[in-house]
Amino acid sequence: MNTLTYGGDLLLTLLLHVGAAASICAWLARSATFRKVLFTELRDSDQKLKLLLFVTPPLAFGVILRIVGRPYRAADLMLEGSFLLGLLGGRVVGPLGGSIISLPAFFHHEWLSMPVAAAAGLVGGLIRLTVPNTEEIWKLGPFTFMSTPRWLMCLYRRKKVSWEMLPLGALVVLELGRQALGLATKPQWLFYLDVGKGWGIALVLLSTVMAVAVPMKIWNNTRIEMNLEQHQQLLLKARMDALTAQINPHFLFNTLNTVSSLIRYDPDTARGVVIKLSNILRRLLRKHETFVPLQEELDFIDDYLDIEVARFGHDNLQIHKHIDERTLDAFVPSMFLQPIVENALKHGLAAKLGVGELNISTATQDGRLVITIEDNGVGISKERMAKVYQDGIGISNVHERLRVLYGADFKMDISSREGEGTRIQIEIPELIPATHEVPLILPATKV
Q1: What is the distance, to the nearest Å, from the Cα of residue 196 to the centroid of all Cα atoms in its chain?
Q2: What sections of 198-353 are H helices per DSSP?
Q3: What CATH class has 266-429?
Q4: Which end of the chain has the least Cβ crowding within 10 Å, N or C?
Q5: CA distance 59 to 426
C-alpha cells in the first residue's frame, strides 16, 4: 500500500522528497562539465547526451531505492526528473530520459511508469519549445506559486504573460493525472503517493512543484555565477586591449619622430631605421598575443634599440645584455619591456652628458623570472618617484598590465638616485608550459 497519513509520515516523506531533489542537483552542479552543459542554452547532440548521462543515473537509482523498500519512497523523482530533462533538453531528451529513468520501475512490472515518465518529459520539452525565450524557464523558483493571483489578474487584463507559470501549471496537471491514473488502474501498475483526498493532495502537489523548482533555482544560481565569471574575463581582456592600445601609439609616435630627424642629415641610416621599423610594425600588426616567449620580446627590443643607437650615436649609447639562456623560453607579457626601455632612454639617458649605458639582464630565482633594466642616466627626483606609478603612460601602464595579469603575484621595484641612474627590477612567475599553450588571463587573477 502507498497510502500515507496526514501526520509526520506524510510531511517527512515530502520533505525528504524535495531534499533528495536538491541534493542530487547540488551534487551534479559540482561537475565542471555539467556546469558547461547548463551554461550553454543552445545544446548540440553531444551536450544533450552529456545531460542525459549526468541526470538519468542518479534518478534511476532513486527509483531502485523506492522499489527496494517502503522507507525510500521519497527517493523516487521519476516524474519530476523526466519533466526537468524536457525543460532543459527539449522534446527528444525529455521522453528519452524519462524512459531511461523509469526502466527499473518498468522491470518491476509497473507497466504505466514508462508512458507516464515519457509523457512528463515530452510536456517539459514542448514547454521549452513554446516559450519564446528559454531564459524565461529559469525564472521558475520555489516561491513562483505565490504569484498565481497576480498572474491570473494579468491574464484577465490581457497584460504580459508570465511564462514561468506555464511549467508550474504543467507540473500540477501531471501530478493530478498521475494520481487519477493510479486510482483508476491496479495499484501495482504505477507508483504514486496515495494520500486520499483533501489537504494531502495539496501537499503532494506542492512537493512535486518544489522538487523541480528547487533544482532550477540552484542550477540558475550556478549559471549566474558562470556568467559573472565569463564577464569578468571579458572585462580583463578589454582592459588589457585598452592598455596595449595605449602603449603602441605612444611607441610609434616616438619612433617616427626619430626617423623624421634622421632623414634630414643621414638618409642611409634613416633607411636602415625604416627597415627596423618595418620589423616592429610587422610584429605590432600580427594577431594580438597576451603572452610571448622572452626571446621574442628581446628580439623586438633589439630592433627598437638599433633605432635608438642610430639616433644617439654608437659612441653615445652603449647596450649591455646579460641574458640567462634558461629564461629565453619563459613566457612574458607582450610589449611590456619596450615602454621601460623607452623611458630609460628618453628620461634617463637623453639628458645625460657623456656616454649613456643601458644594462638588460634576466635570471631565474626559485621558479620566478627576474628581469632587470638599469641605466646610468640622470635619475628620478624624489618628487617624481612618489608619482612614478601614476604619471605617464610608460611605467604606470606596465605596472597596471602586470597587476591585471598576475594580481598580487608580481613585484616591480624602482630605485633611482639623481645623477647616477635608475634601476627597475621586475619579478614574475616563470611560465614555461610544456605544450606552449599560455592562458590569456592567469587563473589566479584577482582585481
Answers
A1: 49
A2: 199-265, 267-285, 294-312, 338-343
A3: alpha beta
A4: N
A5: 55
Angle (CA) 120 204 142, round 5°? 80
pLDDT tens digits for range 212-255: 999 999 998 888 888 887 777 766 666 666 655 555 565 677 66
> What span, in angstroms and rounded, lies between the C-alpha atoms of 339 and 400?
13
Q: Which amino acid is at 355?
A: V
Model pTM above 0.70: no
pLDDT in tens, 415-444: 888 888 899 999 999 876 544 444 444 444
Phi, psi for residue 149 in degrees, rounded to 5: -60, -40
Q: Decide if 355 contacts 318 (C-beta within 8 A).
A: yes
Cα→Cα distances 157→130, 145, 152, 160, 161, Å = 22, 19, 9, 9, 10
Q: Where are the beta strands (DSSP E) in 97-227?
A: none
Domain positions in the chain are 8-230, 266-429
> How far apart, in whole angstroms, are the C-alpha atoms of residue 196 and residue 151?
29
